Amino acid sequence: MKEMIYQTVCPGCNMGCGLYIRENEDGKLAVDFMKSSSANLGKLCRFGMKLPYHYSKSVSMVDGKKASVEYAVKIASDRLSGEDVCVNVNVALLGVGNTTNEESLAFNKIADRMGTIVNTGMGVYSELPTECHPTVGVGVTLNDIENVNRIALFVDPYIQYPLLVRRILAARKNGAYVVSVGLRDLHLADENRYIDPDLYESELGLDSGSVIITELHPNTDTGWVRRMLNLALRTQAKILFMKPFVNAAGVDLLCKGAGQKGIPEIMDGINEGNIKTLVVLDSDPIELMPDSDAAAAILKKLDNLIVITSRDSPVNRIADVVIATEPQYAKAGSFMNVEGRLLNNVHVYGDNNLPSGTAGIDALSTLNQYLGGEAMDYQTLHNKVLESIVRKYTKPKYKELACQVLDIGPVEGQKGNLIYLYNPFMWFDQPDDNDFVLVNMNMVKKLGLRKGGMIALGSDVGTVNIRYRVENMPDGLILSARKLPVATGWITMVSTEAVL
Amino acid sequence: MMTEQEWTPKIVAFCCNWCSYGGADTAGMGRFQQPASVRIIKVMCSGRIDPLHVFNAFLEGADAVLVTGCHLGDCHYVNGNEKTEVRHQFLEEMVQQLGLEPERLYLNWISASEGEKFANFVNDVTEKVKKLGPSPLKPEGVR
Amino acid sequence: MVEVGDMLVGYATDEDIRSRGASGGLVTAVLAAALEKGLVENVVVMKHINEFEAVPIITDDVKEVLASIGSLHSVPVNLAKYAVGRKVAMPAKPCDAQAVIEQAKRGMIDLDNTYIVGLNCGGSMHPVTTKKMLVEMYDIDPEDVVGEDIKKGKLVFKTKNGEEKALRIDELEEAGFGRRESCRFCTLKIPLNADLACGNWGVIGDLSGSATFCQVMNGKGVKLLENAIKAGRIEVQPASDKAIAIREKVNNVMVDLGNTLEKKILPVIPDEERLQYYIDQLADCVNCGACKEVCPVCACGEDSKCTTFHSLVDNYKMSMYHMVRMLHLADSCISCGQCSDVCPSDIPITLLKSRFAIPSQRKRNYHPGIDLDTPPFFEVMLK
Questions:
Q1: pLDDT at position B57 over 70
Q2: Number of other residues whose CB lies within 10 A of the CB of residue A68
Q3: Architecture, CATH, for domain A56-347+355-405
Q4: Cβ neighbours of B83 in C, within 8 Å
Q5: Which of A107, A269, A480, C291 registers the highest number of CB atoms within 10 A of its CB?
Q6: Contact A149, A210 (CB under 8 A)
Q7: Complex ipTM above 0.95?
Q8: How confident is residue C113, by pLDDT bands cut at 50, 70 and 90?
Q9: Rounded to an integer, what distance in angstroms lies between the CA atom of residue C257 and that of residue C273?
Q10: How does strand C42-50 pair with strand C145-151?
């Protein structure tokens, strides 16, 4: 076999970084740079550079035993049409992105067939008036960021969205003033401030030539999103919601907004026994929930857990049925990035008898047929995608939203002091060298932490000793870029002491 | 709390097992006056000192770094110190280009019997570094 | 008979290759012949995706070699790492050839098995910058471009409808476009370190635009040419004195320009400001490690000193990773610009490395990637 080269999009977040995956004769993967890619000029972050470790082949399984895809699909359809499956009541479908528009569309057709919807896991959508959706869904273009007069930054680009760093630096070079309202001091900001949210409008100096950069993920506080939307509305500033999954913007446009459930809500539903059957498309709640162990325990309560996936992830091991699809880079199809740009997978080089890249769609099509629906083929789905989901940034058209933002802080009665900085390594539960938390010098002094030593964190669910790194950040907070066994949510109240 | 006037530099001295560590020992036994600023790290041969050890010393807060070993021709591992010397040339150039004062990095050959030389060397460096003040690479929170 | 030192002018015998090639298709024909006649097992070429994108492939298919014809100034890839561990022939810009030789010094490439067909290079451009330049300076839709060329200090773009537009390179660079920074101060324009040094400088008269000037640098160069002549792929003739003089003149102009631009691109930073300059430049590093991954002279593999002794938990004022690499590359950096190209934080990392490497190399009159007779300094100095 010849070396295969695929042009694809990085699955780390919704930035849409173009790259090549080279698969050599032995199946070993390597990343190569696609310098003409508009989103990233071929540049990649730490996650992108480590992509060969991210892709893993999934294997079709039925009740824990290896099976053929055909058999897995058949069994899945049997389970889905079983007597105790009552679509409107106790079934949930989840697809956060992480796959092509075409597969997502096929998944939506199955949902239609079953009389339900696909949940994108972003609960915020169902809690916001529909006129807000376009603003949240597709943001300003990444090129536009470079030409604004002012940037209000609510994310940590270094840790969370590294490809934003160069855009913000370019904006500064072009004269923009950058205010970081994040959780720690950032080198790229002109000003690092910890402002009372009530004072954002008066203190940040935003106008129609400015941009607000913030994020949206399954565990985002809705109050926060509302506040950001209000800020954009009042100041007329443009806004960009960074999103954590490749094609998160695409699935948002493909899925019906009404009745959307967030992942936390779905997990609550399972836990309370209201949801008995869960079908997921390239979405692993164990990876996506802040507390992996708790999520796995909840998923075990399901009668039916059907996983359609291209990766070998933790949920596969507890699934009743796993329907394996080809790796994401090998799929035929398109992805939409955070700025609304449609990016295609292209098979650039390799043998003449190339795989079609439609194994996932074929499996979904078969499943749909078993359920009494029609067959679906790639080209038809692709054409539909091209027709239906091209979007551009639009000026806010919503009205002022009511909102209440939760307090974060080390004080009792507030939500908590350990805060997750979501980044692709965390989402995908990939090992990396972020095995430390961020604290400030006052905490080091207060606790008497030793240089090169550890800090002990404790909560109701456990304790952990972990190394720390000193940063300029507000007193009492602890930031983490990886999941810790003490956390119960994206914010957790933890106790702190020095490890002696 | 220390005041600024009390500041004493931190100097990391890499000494080889066979010569310069002996030199440091002899300096102590001979009761030559030495400042408390030096931290000695013993290695078997100066040839073991990788530039990254020197960088690490600076990044961790050293105000000066001394690399010491046997006189040329006296190396107990044939030519370890000759390798040190070649490396040192690059290190020196790098420190210079970085913009770190050249008075913060030294290479010196000291035999086991040269206790006084060791003491004078350390005193001399300490004086020079005191004039320079703390290293600009010193991390915050480290004195 | 071809001999080392010969200065020739040649072209592909196949009319199709000759007309499609940028200058007579000699390089493509030589590579194809090397593969056909078993001189090598593979050829490394760029597979074109469009005018601004190509991806290196390692092929044993003559058709793919022939399809790769034509120059691409907007695809600044260094090919050296693709040649590691193979018996290959490859086209090479001077910096590709430098990197191949540096890899050979470190035992990663067997030069006896690697045939390097060098190409004159006046510089390459970043594809995204080029597209932006087309829109802003040329008023051409990037999609319409079908070819480019550098002629007499001007950058020429040809469009679908047969039009050509040329602008002066120095003007483009003044406006922030044009060649990559590292290309601007590069002074190795003719790949005298390759086996063959090919290019269109010195191709005059009737042959202008349809032949390649080729200097035979060593025994492998002789083999490559004789092999291609024997295979009936190319025809060569001696270059005239005038041609040789013109090539030399073009080269001198380019080298002088490079020397002038170096002072502009790498201005002296006062002693007391340098440390802060480096700290500031490196402060936006996101630790992706791409600069090492892409570095064509690095032969350390995955577990290397720069990464092993660098930890994200350290909050040092400067990154250990970069410090180790600065020193490590002091002898071998060829200022090819690959690291700057892939830096996600747009750190001008090549320029930073050059600030360390160029003085060290000049002081010892050492030129990395020229020949195997000058091993890395460390060895030289111990002898």
A1: yes
A2: 11
A3: 3-Layer(aba) Sandwich (3.40)
A4: 378, 382
A5: A107
A6: yes
A7: no
A8: very high
A9: 28
A10: unpaired
Q: How far is CA C223 from CA A209, C96, C230, C235, C302, in A?
A: 63, 20, 10, 15, 36
Of A79-88, B30-39, C307-316, the range with the highest mean pLDDT is: C307-316
Q: With 90 as the cut, is the pLDDT of residue A189 above it?
A: yes
Domains and CATH numbers, chain B: 7-132 (3.40.50.960)
Please tell me whether the overall predicted TM-score, pTM, comes out greater than 0.90 for this model.
yes
CA dist C174 and A136 (Å) reads 40
Examine residue C2 and state whether it is found in any structural domain, yes or no: no
pLDDT tens digit string along A341-358?
999 999 999 887 777 899
In 3D space, the residue among C180, C62, C40 whose CA is nearest the CA of residue C116 turns out to be: C40
Identify the chains in contact with A, defined as 3+ C-beta pairs within 8 A.
B, C
Q: Which of C162, C178, C194 is at the close of a domain? A: C178
C133 and C117 both lie in a single domain: no
DSSP string, C212-248: EEEEE-SHHHHHHHHHHHHTTSEEEEEPPHHHHHHHH
Q: Which residue of chain C has the CA closest to A46?
A: C288
Q: What is the token pair recorded at A224?
A: 């926060």
Q: CB A469 to CB C315 under 8 A? A: yes
Q: In angstroms, what CA-CA distances link A290 with A13, A274, A443, A492, C325?
A: 17, 22, 24, 10, 37
Tell me which CATH code domain A4-51 carries: 2.20.25
CA C32, A28, C126, C202: dihedral to nearest 10 degrees?
Answer: -20
DSSP string, A439-472: E-HHHHHHHTPPTT-EEEEEETTEEEEEEEEE-S
β-bridge pairing C212-216 and C196-199:
antiparallel
Nearest CA to CA, how far is C290 from chain A (Å)? 7
Residue C272 is nearest to which of B52, B87, B99, comparing CB atoms?
Answer: B99
Domain that holds residue C339: 269-382
- Segment A381-432, tens digit of pLDDT: 999 999 887 777 777 778 888 777 666 666 666 678 999 999 999 999 888 8
A470 at interface of B, judged by CB pairs closer than 8 A:
yes
- Contact flag B140-A444 (C-beta cutoff 8 Å): no
Dist CA A73 CA A81 (whole Å): 12
What's the sign of the alpha-carbon dihedral A287, A293, A295, A297?
positive
Share of chain B above pLDDT 90, in %: 82
